[in-house]
Design a protein that fits this description.
This protein has 189 residues and is mostly helical. It has helices at 6-28, 31-34, 45-71, 86-95, 119-137, 159-184, and strands spanning 146-148, 156-158. The longest helix has 27 residues, at 45-71.
Length: 189
């Protein structure tokens, strides 16, 4: 069923494209290549996917609780428009794939010393959970529903900010995975 909210539909499509690229990586890149760090000493492709698993996972429970509570109200707040908060706007700017400025991940979002087995499949499962949350949020007022950022409790986002951040964040990191694999693959990508 298509999403009625145009913003949710766009973020869903973006996550779908990122997931499709990740499936291509699983099918074409040997596991040992996923573990190789690029010449610039950045994260390996596996570490990037681990970072995405950690980040996306930290948003899941607060969003689920928010939508469950809202749907339990006698009259859930509904709207089809969305506008980012100031924090949301800043996060989206910093994560935008066209923004070449490097930024360090907050400690809560950093991958551990090694990625989990089948990390890309784990992230693809997380993407489907996020897309299911989008379907659950469809029709609700994404501006009115607020949560704290998992990175810093004082940063308040609205639900639309959270979904936008997850979609843009995935896009940005798919670009990072492409660059990393081009650097570490024997065939150059």
């Amino acid at each position: 069923m298509p999403l009625a909210n145009a913003h949710l539909a766009a973020w869903d499509a973006s996550l779908s494209r990122s997931a499709e690229y990740a499936r291509t990586v699983v099918a074409q890149v040997p596991p040992d290549v996923l573990q190789r760090r690029p010449s610039w000493r950045g994260w390996s492709a596996a570490e990037v996917f681990e970072h995405l698993c950690v980040t996306d996972g930290l948003y899941e429970a607060p969003l689920r609780a928010l939508f469950t509570a809202e749907r339990g109200r006698p009259a859930p707040r509904t709207a089809t428009t969305w506008r980012p908060t100031i924090w949301g706007r800043l996060l989206l700017w910093s994560l935008n794939p066209s923004n070449a400025r490097k930024s360090q991940s907050p400690p809560a979002f950093r991958p551990g010393p090694s990625s989990r087995p089948d990390v890309i499949e784990a992230w693809l499962t997380q993407v489907e959970a996020t897309r299911a949350l989008m379907r659950d949020a469809d029709g609700l007022d994404l501006r009115a529903l607020k949560l704290s950022s998992p990175a810093a409790r004082l940063i308040r986002l609205n639900a639309g900010d959270a979904f936008a951040v997850l979609a843009v964040h995935a896009e940005r990191h798919m670009g990072q995975v492409r660059r990393t694999l081009a650097d570490v693959s024997p065939s150059g990508g």
